[in-house]
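Ticket #4471: structure export looks truncated?
Reporter: QA, pipeline team
Priority: medium

Steps to reproduce: submit the single chain below to the structure queue and open the exported record.
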Amino acid sequence: MKSKMQETMERQADDLRRLHADTGRIEELAALLADRRVLVIGTGTSWHAAAQGALFLRKAGVDAWAIPSADFCFDGPAVGPNDSVVAMTHTGAKRYTGEALEQARSDGAVTVVISGLGVEGADLETVPREVSAAYTASHLGALFRLAQLAQALGADLGDLGTVPDAVAEAMASEPMSVGVPDRLMEFIGGGINQWTAAEGALKVRETAYVATEGLGIEQFLHGPSVALRRTDTLVCFDGGGPWTERIGEIADAAEQSGVCVKRVSAPGIGEPLSIFPLTVAAQRIALELAGKLGTDPDTFGRGIPGREPWSAIRL
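Actual output as written to the record:
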């Protein structure tokens, strides 16, 4: 029996085709962001989308930066009428993203909310609310909306029309065949794909409950690489572009040290858009490990003995 996570992953290409055809408010909302500093906020998977979206917007010459929602609430920066806050939220229910939006609006900033279909207050809608707690389609949908906004502002990201087929191909490719590591699974990527690595680590932890970490190439190399052992697995995401040579050096060194290395490449549609098929690869790794370990990828660990106290914490 398929998990809800798998069922949702299998429809992602079609979701993206629909979003590609739906540009109704893109130009209008892009105009709101033009000539303003843009702070992109989110939590969890949405934080990864925020970081990648800010990079998309910077490619359009926008002064754009990503900030975790809770950090925005507690530590600023201060915003005003010359600023815009773009909020990434799957369901509109995350505590600090909601509080950050209230704070930004009270300070006079322009706000844009990217969220799921039917979510109250969404300015740009993505996909139907997911049943699985492991968000997949809503993440790719949010990234696609950010790419549409960036392109409307002048960013050269490549042909967005190629993304749905690239996602479909990533889903239809051979199984990843990633074994369960004895101790740690490390994900790494360069530039925009450091956030794909972070998303891969998050997905594996929340679905298969395996110890993982997701880092940018240099952050991994300058410290954490020392801790890598033969019993660990290193997953390298390569989207092409200037990071390819460096990630190849690291993958080679890890293999020569006896580490199990999985190289995942998607150079065909350009580095900025490579995040779409590479994110699918990360999702598939998580789903594969959940299947091997017999965990339920849809439940966010609910039902695990001892998890009950966590349910009292508002997300």
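Status: closed, not a bug. The export was complete when the record was re-opened. Leaving a note from the reviewer for reference: Strands lie at 37-42, 64-68, 83-88, 110-115, 124-125, 185-189, 212-216, 233-238, 260-265.
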